[in-house]
């Protein structure tokens, strides 16, 4: 990974972007893609789009990832000055106690800690905590002091960002799905470098973690011929991974191509052929019900849009210490660029019935 792309990735990871509050992260993304796109824009909810215009008779394809991350929101402030959080997306209360957090208030960040009763004082019954059991200590003496600094509706993120465990292994908060928006941008850059005949959109969507709302909006507006959505998927190559849910997906073994349900069979084959042509090894994943990604919104946004999920293997999803191998990111980006460069060879991605 060259230094510019590496800096772009870490800038994304350092910028808090909880669902519904993605503006800061979208600015980082737009600044990067503007250097090589023909045009960039946003819609009214903050979905960000960059485009490389192709030939008039060539198809249009979307390469996309979602900008938002899970987090919390200020639900209430009690009279003792403790902030009571609510959930943004699938935030996990079991890994949130004892964490430093940042409340993104109107006047600037407010630091706090998620309280936890000391082990000496509690009788653990084995029950997992719920978000309603959590409280955040911002150091306030009472409710009025806390309310002077934070307000109901302010978003909250875990304060950690990222760390390089090795030259290739990256861990941190919000990897789901900064790696998707990074690969969409890098896929567009590679398509531009390859002079792709197709019109290629890179999209950074909002609000995936709360129902794939951004994809519904922008998918209808763009009306593309095909969509490749990049997200993370569970890599279960670690001790104590649940055996009944074990898959063949491993960190460092390359892009994961999903098959079944949302994933369009013609587009899936096109992506696999692009990977083979580019000498990229892929992992396969079964998806018999739905993908749980933006692809589920794109493919029904306008009467049926061929859509495909390509995933980055990710350990410890929805925790502050998600882990990926950057070689997987680079190969996903290369796969997106290769697919976009070959997309003009397809008159249609429709199934032959």
H/I helix tally:
8
| Structural class determined from secondary elements | alpha+beta
Going by CATH, the homologous superfamily of the largest domain would be Zn peptidases
- Which term fits the overall shape? globular
The number of distinct β-strands equals: 17
What name does the CATH topology of the largest domain carry? Aminopeptidase
Indicate the mean pLDDT.
95
Instruction: Tell me the β content.
Output: 25-35%
Catalogue the unreliable spans: none
How many domains?
2
Widest beta sheet: strand line-up? 1-2-12-3-13-16-14-15
**CATH architecture descriptor of the largest domain:** 3-Layer(aba) Sandwich
> Would you state the CATH class of the largest domain?
Alpha Beta
The SSE string, one letter per element, is HHEEEEEEEEHEEEHEHEEHEHEEH
Radius of gyration: 21 Å
The main sheet comes to: 8 strands, mixed
* Distance from first to last alpha carbon: 43 Å
Helix content: 25-40%
Binding site for Zn(2+) 1: 66, 176, 231
Organism: Natribaculum luteum
GO molecular function: aminopeptidase activity; metal ion binding
Family: Belongs to the peptidase M42 family.
């Amino acid at each position: 990974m060259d230094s510019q792309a590496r800096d772009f990735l870490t800038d994304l990871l350092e910028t808090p972007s909880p669902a519904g509050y993605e503006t800061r992260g979208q600015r980082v993304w737009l600044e990067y893609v503007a250097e090589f796109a023909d045009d960039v824009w946003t819609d009214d909810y903050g979905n960000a789009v960059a485009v490389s215009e192709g030939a008039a008779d060539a198809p249009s394809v979307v390469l996309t990832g979602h900008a938002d991350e899970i987090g919390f929101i200020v639900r209430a402030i009690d009279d003792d000055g403790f902030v009571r959080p609510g959930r943004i997306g699938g935030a996990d209360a079991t890994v949130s106690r004892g964490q430093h957090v940042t409340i993104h208030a109107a006047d600037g960040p407010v630091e706090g800690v998620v309280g936890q009763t000391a082990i000496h004082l509690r009788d653990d019954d084995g029950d997992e905590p719920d978000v309603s059991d959590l409280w955040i200590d911002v150091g306030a003496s009472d409710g009025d002091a806390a309310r002077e600094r934070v307000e109901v509706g302010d978003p909250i993120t875990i304060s950690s960002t990222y760390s390089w465990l090795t030259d290739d292994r990256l861990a941190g908060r919000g990897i789901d799905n900064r790696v998707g928006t990074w690969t969409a941008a890098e896929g567009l850059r590679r398509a531009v470098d390859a002079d792709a005949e197709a019109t290629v959109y890179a999209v950074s969507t909002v609000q995936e973690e709360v129902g794939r709302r951004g994809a519904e909006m922008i998918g209808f507006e763009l009306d593309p011929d095909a969509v490749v959505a990049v997200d993370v998927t569970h890599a279960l190559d670690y001790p104590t991974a649940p055996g009944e849910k074990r898959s063949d997906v491993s960190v460092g073994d390359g892009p994961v191509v999903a098959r079944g349900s949302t994933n369009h069979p013609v587009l899936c084959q096109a992506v696999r052929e692009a990977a083979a042509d580019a000498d990229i090894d892929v992992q396969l994943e079964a998806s018999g019900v739905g993908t749980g990604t933006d692809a589920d919104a794109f493919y029904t946004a306008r009467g049926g849009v061929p859509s495909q999920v390509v995933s980055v293997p990710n350990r410890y999803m929805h925790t502050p210490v998600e882990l990926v191998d950057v070689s997987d990111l680079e190969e996903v980006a290369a796969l997106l660029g290769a697919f976009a460069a070959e997309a003009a060879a397809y008159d249609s991605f429709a199934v032959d019935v």
